[in-house]
Amino acid sequence: MGIDGESSTNPSSISVCNASVQEEQTLGRLQEELYNAETSVCLLKATLAEQMEKKVKVQNEMQSLQKRINKEGALTGIQKLVPLLESLKAMERQEFDCKSHCETKHSEVQEEITELEMILSSEIHHYSTDFDYPLQLSLERLNLAKSELAAKLRAILMLKWQLDAVPSQTELIQYERRFSELYRQIQEKLRKTRKYYATYNTLLEIKELMLKETSLLNSISSQFKDAITSTSGRTKLIDSMEGIVKGTQQKLDKVQLGLQAEQKVCDALKEKYALAVAEQRQCYSLLRAFQEECAKNEKLQREISS
Fold first, then answer.
1. Boundaries of each CCDC93 coiled-coil domain copy (predicted)?
2. Mean of the per-residue pLDDT values of the chain
3. Is the pLDDT of residue 19 over 60?
4. How many Cα neighbours within 13 Å face the side chain of 19?
5. Which of 63, 75, 167, 225 could form a disulfide with 171 if both were Cys (CB 3.0 to 4.6 A apart)?
6. CA 166 to CA 305: how far, in whole Å?
7. Are residues 172 and 269 in the same domain?
8. 85-88 long-range contacts, Cβ below 8 Å, gap at least 24?
9. Rg (CA), the chain
């Protein structure tokens, strides 16, 4: 738009347009003069042809008269022949005058045509030289405008591709649903994995306790007979049993502390679960309202476009 505005107000372009208009007017005037000259030549040629026909007619009459003279006699033939000869001479003079006039007119017209062609060629050369520079400027501006238009088109296509890459509302909703499903699946797998690890650790502790218990029972069974026969042996056995009871009590206290910690974690998880359920219900209600608003928006857009 800016280039067209500059070219429309350029003085060189205005002068070129005026020169082209003057050239067209001069060319039309020259063509009109050429047409008039050609018309005059055609009229002269028609007049010459008419005189030639009259000449041929007179010659035929003279021949017929010559024949009649030979038949009727010389005197009457001569009397009829004299005016015919005079008219023939007059026609010959008219023919000569007509030919000379036609030749003169033809030469003048030919000179005028040559002169007009020279003037026309010189003016065309002059106007062509005047046209070259503005034409070159116009071509440069046109090429610049084409390059700018191509750059803008590339930018528009890039923006269009970026807009096409942006997901729509329906796709976003589908992605959200899919992510929610994947999150639930991952959380379920994590819960099962933790449960399996907890079960494994519990069984491992039970195994260790059973092994210790078996070892203790074997030790008591092997040392009971020797320890029960002496006072020092009984005292040592009782001390050993008290130590075992204290160790077992410490282990039980430790397990109780772990159980209480797990119970606290379980209670906290239950509270979080309740909060998450309430938040999920709120999200579902908001999602339902959002979907209804999206449907209304799409309906309004279809009505506006139609």
1. 13-301
2. 78
3. no
4. 16
5. 167
6. 22
7. yes
8. 87/58, 88/55, 88/58, 88/59, 88/62
9. 64
